Amino acid sequence: MKPKILLITGFEPFGSEVENPSWQAVSLLPDSIGAWTLFKLLLPVTFSDAAALAIETAQRIHADAVLCVGLAAGRNAVTPEAVGLNLRDASIPDNAGRQPKDEPIDPNGLAAYFSTLPVRRMTEAIARVGIPAKISYSAGTYVCNDLLYTLLRRFNGSPVRAAFIHVPLASCIPVSDSARALTAAIEAIDPAE
Question: Is 62 among the catalytic positions?
Answer without folding.
Answer: no
